[in-house]
Design brief:
Blueprint (H helix, E strand, L loop, with lengths): L5 H11 L21 E3 L10 H14 L1 E3 L2 H7 L4 H7 L8 E3 L13 E5 L9 E3 L4 H13 L4 E5 L4 H4 L1 E7 L2 E8 L20 E2 L4 H12 L9 E8 L5 E7 L15 H16 L1
Parallel strand pairs: 1-2
Antiparallel strand pairs: 3-6, 4-5, 4-6, 7-8, 7-10, 8-9, 10-11
Helix pairs in contact: 1-8, 2-3
């Protein structure tokens, strides 16, 4: 998994504002979370290997301090079956079917498709298959089910190879910036191979349609929680209209270092304000 190059920048920006900011490992047994006014989840990219442990930590942390985002959001968003909930509320999403261990998987007869786990980060255990790769895809599913993972099967959205994937970032309840990147899953790339998570990064100016879909996705989060940050990942469906590929509410990369350094003070100010609101 790539290094979080944004985190040191954020810590320094907060300290320059007089905020006591520390980088703490989420699973550090000596961490005193009650000593902080605010705990902001940043790059816990190992959580998908230890999902139950991570969700339990979020519950414990939120019991003694404000956790951003909240523990119930963490629990909901770390299981990508939330895509089905968004779809049922009318949010355009990539069509997804789910197969838990013990289920008989159904794979598309034609066209390309993607298999990945419902709990993952950095395209872990994700792969792209064609209609002639059924046996390889079934072995992939068998490996996931053997490890207790629920699999999701999606059609490969061909427009991602043309218009890319766009990520719209929100911080402090406001639109922050957006990026576009190329497709991550190349044909023939094994599910257990290392992937480049953000190839060909570039700034992006979202369209009105993209902003609308992002707003609808965020409005559909259960309980209308207060979100310090959010990232909505979009691709163009077969009809050319944007749809949600993922809704990142736990540990989204912000692209402050690579693409949008101008957003650093905005993010730092939002974190500082959230911490100050708690301490009042």
């Amino acid at each position: 998994m790539e290094q979080d190059r944004d985190l040191p920048l954020l810590v320094n920006a907060l300290r320059e504002r007089g905020v006591r900011a520390e980088m703490v490992l989420w699973d550090d047994p000596s961490a005193d979370w009650a000593a902080f006014d605010l705990a902001v989840i940043r790059s816990t990219w190992d959580y998908s290997w230890r999902l139950a442990e991570f969700v339990a930590w979020a519950d414990r942390c939120s019991a003694v301090t404000r956790l951003a985002n909240p523990a119930d959001v963490v629990r909901w968003n770390t299981d990508k079956r939330y895509l089905g909930e968004l779809a049922r509320q009318g949010v355009p999403t990539v069509p997804t079917r789910y197969f838990a261990p013990g289920d008989t998987p159904e794979l598309p007869e034609n066209g390309e498709y993607v298999i990945k786990p419902t709990a993952s980060a950095g395209s872990r255990f994700a792969a792209r298959y064609g209609s002639g790769e059924r046996d390889t895809a079934l072995r992939h599913l068998a490996r996931m089910h053997g490890d207790g993972m629920t699999a999701m099967v999606q059609p490969y959205v061909a427009n991602i190879d043309v218009t890319g994937e766009r990520a719209l970032l929100f911080y402090g309840g406001r639109y922050l910036h957006a990026i576009r990147k190329a497709a991550v899953l190349e044909p023939g790339l094994a599910y257990d191979a290392d992937k480049v998570p953000h190839p060909s990064l570039e700034p992006w100016e979202p369209t009105a349609a993209e902003l609308d879909v992002a707003a609808r996705a965020l409005a559909a989060v259960p309980g209308a929680p207060e979100l310090l940050y959010a990232r909505v990942d979009l691709v163009d469906g077969d009809d050319g209209q944007p749809c949600v590929m993922e809704l990142e509410l736990v540990e989204p990369q912000l692209f402050l270092n690579e693409v949008h350094p101008e957003s650093l003070p905005v993010v730092a100010e939002a974190i500082a304000k959230a911490a100050a609101d708690v301490s009042r």
